[in-house]
Structures are given as C-alpha cells and as structure tokens.
Amino acid sequence: MFVDIANIHLKAGNGGDGAVSFHREKYVAAGGPDGGD
After folding, report:
1. Which residue from 3, 5, 7, 16 puts its CA 20 to 30 A from 24's CA?
2. What is the pLDDT along the chain (37 residues), one digit of tens a residue?
3. Considering the entire predicted model, what is its pTM?
C-alpha cells in the first residue's frame, strides 16, 4: 500500500500599507481626506 502526503502552503502577499488620498477640487484649498464615512 502506498500513501502520498503533500503539505502545501500558499501566500499571496501581506496586504501592504494601505493608501491615503485627499479630496481635490478647484476652489477648495484644503479638501481634507477623501472617501470613507
């Protein structure tokens, strides 16, 4: 009787550090953060 065993570990990445974006508009000098609640 033959038994095959395989342990497979997969990792796609660590998720990164995220992103920061700010609201930009022509007549708004300091728009503040963009998006979210």
Report:
1. 16
2. 899 999 999 999 888 888 888 888 888 888 888 876 6
3. 0.34
